[in-house]
Structure formats: structure tokens, C-alpha cells
Design goal:
three-stranded antiparallel β-sheet; 18% strand; Glutamyl-tRNA Synthetase, domain 3; binds glutamic acid; three-stranded parallel β-sheet; alpha/beta; Rossmann fold; 314 residues; elongated
Length: 314
């Protein structure tokens, strides 16, 4: 009987709009890394933040992946259908005293917080109880638990979460002072991305996370939640972000154009060049399958070592 492949990767788009060059590059990077390692490649639709989801975007993303020959294994998982799993994880954190209700508004926090690498650092106002007369709106996780009240490792004795990213090197973050107690369930009753991604990566048995470097500083929060909840930590590779001529990340906000599917081979070659691979010129005459076959066989992600961002082709 063949043994189960060790490697399980995934692409986890948020259907807030169509794929653009940057999100396609993340999809291609995670696909190539998985297939190069003879691994499984899964797609998870992160349609949790319903107010930001655009009708039809998820289906459009799946059609674009197919047009680029990025065929996934198994069924697509939809976060909007997994609330029970997030609720169960939140319940575990609550029962262990690792999560607490918070009544603070955005304005109250921004008025009193120091600004960190990823927004205001929550000053801990509600950590020891909600002020009288106020009501909890969101749920936050304590970042001062060493070790974890659930029996795991927690934040470690010094409160630093550290990991080695395949491309970005050693990352060390002091969660409590650099991020602060963070939200796991939002005031609008939606589960936060940080919790959902950790629950789903564990549920899908993900061993390798390959995604854009815009999420590099979210990773310590995710590792921390994995430790609290007793999940394994995957290995991480954060790919360079595609930026426009102004140095801004390609996104809906910066009006990045949707990926066209009329000249798939030419676009795929541009993606490979962006990922610092060196496709031979004659590959431009090949089929999508030939281009991907070459890219899987010749995948050398180390060529992007240390790159946090790269210009998108114009
Ligand atoms: N859904 C996230 C995004 O589109 C990516 C999440 C992840 O890869 O962990 O930015």
C-alpha cells in the first residue's frame, strides 16, 4: 500500500474580489511547493468575513485556478460552513480562562493604545474583568499565558513566539507587547481570521503553509493559538508580496486588475519570473500543463530568500 504523502499544503483565498497578480502568485507558489514535494494541495475558501465577501467571487477564483491548471485535491472547504468548529475552539479557550470578553470599542482602543506592527496594541483594559455597567462585545485571547492553561506550551517563559520562515528567516515576536491580547471572536459575532485559520489548518492536516509575506506578522499569533489548542505547527514559507509602481501591495484597494484568462501561458510565465524561477524562453510556446510540469520539476524557492516584496510586471 502506498504510504500517505507527508506534505499537505493549501491555498486559502478570501473571496473579496477576483484573483489579481499577487494572489495568483501565492496560489502558484503554494501549488508548486506542494507538487514538487509530491504533496497534497487543498483549497480553502476563507469566506468568513461575510460583509467583505463579494457575490460570485469565490466561484470566479475557482474557475481562474482551473484555467491556470491549478487543480486541487479533494473538496473545497468553505469557512462560512465551519462555525461549529470555531465555536468549539473558542469554548476550549474560554473554559481554560485563556479567552475573555472585551467591551472596548475601536475608538477607545486607538485612543489609549500604542501603535504596534499590526495596528494598536490592546492595552489589556478588560483582561481582569469588564468595567461595571459595560457589556462584552468581542472575545480576546490572553497573550500572557506561560505555559498554556490548556497544558500546551503557551507563549513560552519569556513571552516570545519564534519560528524560522523558509524565505524570511528567523522571526521573533513578543506577543504581549508587540500585538497585545488579540480578538478571536469579533464584536459583530464573526470569528476572527486568526482563530479560523488555525482551526482549519489543523483540521485539514496542513504541514506546510505557503502564502504572502503580508501575513508574516500574523504567524506568531497563529503559532500561539496552535500551542494553546494543542495543534501541531506547520512549517512556513512567506512569499514576496507583489507591489505596484508606487510600492503598494496589489489589492482591491489599490485597484489591482483581475487576472485575465485569455493568455494563460504568458501570465503563468510572468508569475514564474516574479517568483524568481527561470523558465526557458521556448516554454512560452508550451501548454499550461507543460509550463506547470517544468515549474514543478525545477521549483527553487530559495531564489526568493529574504524578499518581502517584488514589483509585479507591468
Ligand atoms: N485568506 C487570507 C488572504 O486571502 C490568506 C490566509 C492564509 O493563507 O493563511 O489573505
Amino acid at each position: 500500500m502506498p504510504s500517505l504523502p507527508q506534505y499537505r499544503g493549501r491555498f486559502a483565498p478570501s473571496p473579496t474580489g477576483p484573483l489579481h497578480f499577487g494572489s495568483l502568485a501565492a496560489a502558484v507558489g503554494s501549488y508548486l511547493d506542494a507538487r514538487h514535494h509530491h504533496g497534497i494541495w487543498l483549497v480553502r475558501m476563507e469566506d468568513l468575513d461575510t460583509p467583505r465577501c463579494v457575490p460570485g467571487a469565490a466561484e470566479g477564483i475557482l474557475r481562474t485556478l482551473e484555467a491556470f491548471g491549478l487543480h486541487w485535491d479533494g473538496e473545497v472547504i468553505w469557512q462560512s460552513r465551519r462555525s461549529a468548529a470555531y465555536e468549539a475552539a473558542l469554548h476550549e479557550l474560554q473554559a481554560a480562562g485563556a479567552a475573555y470578553p472585551c467591551c472596548c470599542t475601536r475608538k477607545e482602543i486607538s485612543d489609549s493604545a500604542l501603535h504596534g506592527i499590526d495596528g494598536p496594541v490592546y492595552p489589556g483594559t478588560c483582561r481582569n474583568g469588564i468595567p461595571a455597567g459595560r457589556e462584552g462585545r468581542a472575545w480576546r485571547v490572553r497573550t500572557d499565558t506561560f505555559p498554556s492553561p490548556l497544558g500546551g506550551e503557551g507563549a513560552g517563559e519569556r513571552g516570545y513566539i519564534e519560528f524560522d520562515d523558509f524565505l524570511q528567516g528567523h522571526i521573533s515576536q513578543h506577543l504581549e507587547s508587540e500585538i497585545g491580547d488579540f480578538v478571536v471572536k469579533r464584536a459583530d459575532d464573526l470569528f476572527a481570521y486568526q482563530l479560523a485559520v488555525v482551526v482549519d489548518d489543523a483540521f485539514q492536516g496542513i504541514t506546510h503553509v505557503v502564502r504572502g509575506a503580508d501575513l508574516l506578522y500574523s504567524t506568531p499569533r497563529q503559532i500561539y493559538l496552535q500551542r494553546l489548542l494543542g495543534f501541531a505547527t506547520p512549517s512556513y514559507m512567506h512569499l514576496p508580496i507583489a507591489v505596484n509602481a508606487q510600492g503598494e501591495k496589489l489589492s482591491k484597494q489599490t485597484l489591482a486588475p483581475a487576472i485575465a484568462t485569455d493568455d494563460v501561458v504568458a501570465t503563468l510565465i510572468k508569475v514564474l519570473e516574479f517568483l524568481r524561477q527561470r523558465p526557458p524562453v521556448e516554454l512560452g510556446q508550451g501548454s499550461v500543463e507543460e509550463v506547470l510540469g517544468w515549474a514543478v520539476g525545477n521549483w527553487q524557492p530559495e531564489r526568493m530568500k529574504g524578499c518581502r516584496q517584488l514589483p509585479a510586471p507591468t
